[in-house]
Each structure stands twice: as C-alpha cells, then as structure tokens.
Amino acid sequence: MAATAPEQAGTSAETQPRQPIWLRCEKKPFEHRSALTPTTAKTLLDNNFEVFVERDPQRIFDDAEFEAVGCKLVPNNEWPSAPVEVPIIGLKELPESTDPLPHTHIQFAHCYKQQGGWTDVLRRFQQGKGTLYDLEFLEDPESRRRVAAFGFHAGFAGAAAGALALAAQQKDGGKGVLKGLKPYKNEDAMVAEVSEALESVEGGKNNVKVLVIGALGRCGSGAVDLFRKAGLTEENIVKWDMAETAKGGPFQEILDVDIFVNCIYLSKPIPKFITSEFMAKAGDSRKLAVVVDVSCDTTNPHNPIPIYDINTTFPEPTVAVDTKGVGRRCTVVSIDHLPTLLPREASEQFSADLLPSLLKFPQRTSEPVWTNAEKLFKQKLEEARVDDEKNGIKA
C-alpha cells in the first residue's frame, strides 16, 4: 500500500503517539462534498493527528489544498489496504459489496432505520469485526442533538431544486422536465438562478406558494431561507412543524401549494402526509405540482410520503407521481445528497461542526459522544443478526 500507520512518536508524558485518520474518496456519483476540509484537517494535524487523504478528482477541494496543510496524500480508493488500526472517515455509504469490514468507519451508513439492504451493511461489519460510528447518530450527550448535520444546506438545496422543477414543469404545456442539476460555485449563484426561474412561472414568483414541514429544524430553516432569498413573499411561505402536523394527515393544505418540501426527521411511524389516492381524489382542484422529500426516507416502510419509490439523481432530478390520470402533473425530487449542490459551503460547515468531536476521538473509549455511538452500533448489529437468523442467513 502507499502509506503506513504513523510511527510511534514516543511514550513520554510530553509526547503521545499521533492519532491516525484516513479520509477516503467518495464513490457515490456526483458527490463532491468531503467529511474533512483542508481547514479542519490542519486543525487535526495541529492537535497530534496524522491525516491521510485519498486523491479524489471528484472532491470539491483539490488534492493540493490538503497537501499544502501537511496531509499525506495516498492513492484513490486505497483505504481497504490501510492498517486496520487506522479509522476511515467518509461521508456517504460504501459501494455495495459482501467484503467484510475490519476497520473503524466514521460515515453515514443509512442502515439504522431498516432501510433497504440494512442487514447487508451491518453483516459486513459483523464478519470483519469492524466498528461503525454513524455520523447521523453522533449526538451531544447533554442536548441529544446531532453534533454535525448537513440539514441546513440540504433544505436550502432541496428548496432550490423544487423551484427549478416547478419552473421546468410549466414549459411544454405543463409537460416540461427538469433536465439536470449541477453543483453551484456558491450560494449567490444558486439563489440568482432560482429567482430567475421562479419569475418565469405563470403569474411570476408572487404567485408561487410553498409549504415547508419541519420548518423549525435545521433542514426546514434552510428551505425557508432559500425561498426568502429567491424572492417569495412571506405569506406564500407556509411554515409547519410538530404543532401543525399533530392532527394527523393526509393534509389538504399540502394540495393547496405549488411546492411541498418535507424536512422532518422520521423516528417512528406517523400518519401519511399525502398519498396518490388523496391527490387523485382532489382532481383538478389540486394545486400541488412538486414535492421535495429532503428527508428521503424512500425505502423506509414508514415513509409519510408514499407517492414515489426511488431516489432521484442529479442527472434525472424528478420522478412523476401516479395521480391516477387526474389533475395537473406532479413530480418528486428525492435526491439523498442534496447538499452537494453547494459542496464547498456545506462541507466547511459540517466539518467545522464535527471537529470538536473528532478532536476527542483518541479518547473514544470514555468520551460519551463516541461511547454512545458505539453502543448504538452494537445494538443495531444485534438487531441485524436476529433478522438474518430469522431469514435463514448466516453471518
């Protein structure tokens, strides 16, 4: 392999061994974000870490930016050959495989809420005796809030995608399709394009009404912020949270807006927000044309928006809803890595929020943010084992 674990710098009270950490490349198509940035990597280096960075032409940060702060560059996708004691950090899930995982991985694994293929992922850790610290479940022990999340930028980018989808849809007699999405240079460029697109819809942007559910959270506040900056009037940005959804759906109010953005964190079964049958029953009175499911619980059996069954992509951002041939056309945006539309800003914010916890990683056997995450991993590992056993699958 191209790199070895750092040499032990000594064992005196003044000099402790350096903590290695390995930033892997991202294999998810069109994923440009990074769990570490040159800025946060430099802070780790200054705090007795050894930072290995895989070369990655897809990452928004150039390899040279990491090299310039003192990181050790290693070949692309070399992490399987890294010493087993070196923890691997990344963002999105690993490519599907049956290879055992012996390393410690810090990443979003999307397997703790019984998503499709969840036992396959956990089985790899079981077989390799590795450990998973899922970024979605790293929590501050006092507030019980996630220590780092892409929520704000997910909501911001999701709202932008929804607005662009609405504008595209109104073309060609209501049959237009959003052709594709690409990362923006910065937030200003995104807002400018969205504002122009909304002005092109029938009646202009003052005629566009949106509903954000989960508006008080990180994700929802991002969606609201985008709509405000793009020029929607405050009265046309309907903001709902737990109080408004407590009565249980389906909700007529969703049908009465042009764009519905779902930003809730699904932790238990809840009544459906909307269904295809509910939409069809409304007929031509339905205004709803675009649904953005930022939460993207596509394969979760309790998904409160069961009007689609696939994750969409940047090349094909929308999927049509089966409205039983009744009423206007409706499409769904269900991209599960929306923040990569603003990869630099999103990465800097997330990595900075994660940094205080990473600095405590050398004490992971005693620091609550890490011990609690490992306890949850072991719990989910056991749940997966039981499920496999029930289905006649051996670890």
Automatic annotation (TrEMBL):
Alanine dehydrogenase/pyridine nucleotide transhydrogenase NAD(H)-binding domain sequence ranges: 197-334
Domain Alanine dehydrogenase/pyridine nucleotide transhydrogenase N-terminal residue range list: 22-157
InterPro entries: AASS, AlaDH/PNT_N, AlaDH/PNT_NAD(H)-bd, Lys1, NAD(P)-bd_dom_sf
Keyword annotations from UniProtKB, A to Z: Amino-acid biosynthesis, Disulfide bond, Lysine biosynthesis, NAD, Oxidoreductase
Listed EC numbers: 1.5.1.7
Pathway: Amino-acid biosynthesis; L-lysine biosynthesis via AAA pathway; L-lysine from L-alpha-aminoadipate (fungal route): step 3/3
SUPFAM superfamilies reported for this sequence: Formate/glycerate dehydrogenase catalytic domain-like, NAD(P)-binding Rossmann-fold domains
Keyword Oxidoreductase: yes
Broad class of enzyme this protein falls into: oxidoreductase
The reaction(s) this protein catalyses: L-saccharopine + NAD(+) + H2O = L-lysine + 2-oxoglutarate + NADH + H(+)
Assembly: Monomer.
Membership in a protein family: Belongs to the AlaDH/PNT family.
Protein name in UniProt: Saccharopine dehydrogenase [NAD(+), L-lysine-forming]
Organism name: Kwoniella shivajii
